[in-house]
């Protein structure tokens, strides 16, 4: 296995693309965050105090950027199976108000629109309806049924493709060193947060439950902020099931040839094309950590959403949920696992909720909102006695209509903490046309905006 992976890495040791710029406007903006975190240290000892911050010169910035962009592509092998999706749905059932009887064994998977053992198309309804349809097709003599749940539900790739590194090779805070600045600057920009991202789905070519080998590479490096308070933004491109072209890094110009642009990403043929934005911040002096810990939630600086949601769901994340998600995603970041570390080193009041968990919650609540809207339409149509026959067909079509996401962009604006109530909100348009745009966001217990995003559905 090690030899196979090494040869695969050698064959795919191509260099990386250059900058990938976004516009930042409202709910349709690209992901950035302004959330601070403290320098991670093993043994829960705070970082060494600096007499004065290390200033970055233009040459330093160019060196940091070139070092990150030159890093070879990372390949992460995983054989997709239904088990992680099932465990994720079981872990979320209590928090989302799903009864155990409906926590179907295949609830995390999307069925194929047509069963391979039957000549008749079968619409995707509820999991129970699909299981019954599969059994009926097999009983009718259609042959041995194949697995109808052969593709991964949108967003569930976030709990697959784990980081395959021993603990000794992780950063002190338990994170992936591939994204961290090198040349010694990881000692300066040592605090990391998941700032947001952008995901595009090809609903006609979903990820199948089979061996996958997606590629990951640094797409964009950007330094922002005044001298001594710089923030390092690193955009990481992940491509799933896509034939990646060979790129070359020009050492003279410090640029990547064939660099993708935002427009070219729109035309990619991958099942899932994702850009994750990580922000690295400077480590702080010990007294600043404690001062920030005591005032981590400033209600005077809360951002309020200027409109009401069409659907919302509240939950209180606890340690069990964070542990389960860390285990499912193989995430060893200590801010999610060790409260003492989060408080004494990061300067936080408690454990932080995962960024990708928030993303999955927004997608799940959006789907529930869609189902409830469909149910209300069906009820309204059934109450119309003049259109019973017409309603019988249209309501069936609507009930079986699956909400498919084409694209989601999101930004993490403020942290969410374990034990604090969070509300996942959706604002959907009234129409039922194609390519609809939905606003999704998460508020904390004070009503402050913590995560905001935009979803485009098919």
TrEMBL record:
<dbReference type="InterPro" id="IPR052741">
    <property type="entry name" value="Mitochondrial_HTD2"/>
</dbReference>
<feature type="region of interest" description="Disordered">
    <location>
        <begin position="371"/>
        <end position="400"/>
    </location>
</feature>
<feature type="compositionally biased region" description="Basic and acidic residues">
    <location>
        <begin position="387"/>
        <end position="396"/>
    </location>
</feature>
<dbReference type="GO" id="GO:0019171">
    <property type="term" value="F:(3R)-hydroxyacyl-[acyl-carrier-protein] dehydratase activity"/>
</dbReference>
<dbReference type="GO" id="GO:0005739">
    <property type="term" value="C:mitochondrion"/>
</dbReference>
<protein>
    <recommendedName>
        <fullName>Mesaconyl-C4-CoA hydratase</fullName>
    </recommendedName>
</protein>
<dbReference type="InterPro" id="IPR029069">
    <property type="entry name" value="HotDog_dom_sf"/>
</dbReference>
């Amino acid at each position: 296995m090690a030899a196979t992976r090494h040869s695969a890495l050698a064959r795919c040791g191509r260099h990386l693309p250059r900058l990938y710029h976004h516009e930042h406007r409202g709910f349709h903006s690209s992901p950035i965050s302004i959330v601070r975190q403290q320098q991670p240290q093993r043994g829960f000892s705070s970082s060494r105090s600096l007499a004065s911050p290390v200033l970055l010169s233009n040459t330093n910035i160019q060196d940091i950027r070139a070092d990150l962009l030159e890093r070879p592509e990372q390949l992460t092998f995983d054989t997709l199976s239904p088990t992680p999706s099932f465990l994720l749905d079981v872990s979320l059932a209590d928090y989302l108000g799903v009864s155990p009887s409906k926590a179907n064994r295949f609830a995390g998977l999307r069925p194929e629109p047509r069963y391979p053992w039957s000549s008749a198309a079968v619409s995707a309804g509820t999991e129970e309806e699909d299981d019954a349809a599969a059994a009926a097709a097999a009983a009718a003599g259609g042959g041995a049924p194949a697995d109808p749940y052969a593709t991964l539900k949108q967003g569930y790739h976030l709990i697959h493709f784990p980081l395959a590194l021993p603990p000794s090779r992780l950063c002190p805070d338990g994170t992936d060193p591939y994204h961290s600045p090198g040349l010694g600057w990881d000692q300066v920009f040592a605090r990391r947060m998941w700032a947001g991202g952008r995901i595009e789905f090809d609903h006609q070519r979903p990820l199948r439950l089979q061996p996958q080998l997606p590629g990951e590479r640094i797409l964009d490096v950007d330094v922002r902020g005044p001298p001594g308070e710089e923030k390092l933004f690193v955009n990481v491109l992940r491509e799933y099931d896509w034939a990646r072209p060979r790129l070359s890094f020009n050492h003279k110009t410090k640029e990547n040839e064939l660099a993708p642009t935002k427009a070219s990403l729109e035309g990619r043929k991958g099942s899932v094309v994702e850009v994750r934005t990580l922000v690295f911040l400077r480590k702080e002096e010990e007294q600043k950590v404690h001062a920030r810990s005591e005032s981590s939630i400033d209600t005077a600086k809360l951002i309020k959403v200027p409109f009401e949601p069409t659907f919302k769901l509240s939950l209180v994340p606890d340690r069990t949920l964070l542990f389960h998600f860390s285990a499912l995603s193989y995430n060893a970041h200590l801010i999610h696992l060790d409260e003492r570390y989060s408080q004494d080193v990061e300067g936080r009041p408690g454990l932080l909720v995962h960024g990708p968990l928030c993303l999955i919650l927004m997608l799940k609540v959006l789907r529930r909102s869609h189902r409830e809207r469909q149910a209300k339409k069906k009820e309204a149509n059934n109450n119309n006695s003049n259109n019973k026959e017409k309603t019988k067909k249209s309501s069936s079509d609507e009930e079986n209509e699956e909400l498919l996401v084409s694209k989601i962009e999101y930004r993490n604006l403020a942290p969410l903490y374990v034990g604090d109530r969070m509300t996942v909100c959706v604002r959907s348009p009234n129409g039922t046309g194609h390519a609809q745009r939905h606003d999704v966001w998460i508020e904390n217990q004070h009503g402050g905006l913590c995560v905001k995003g935009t979803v485009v559905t098919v």
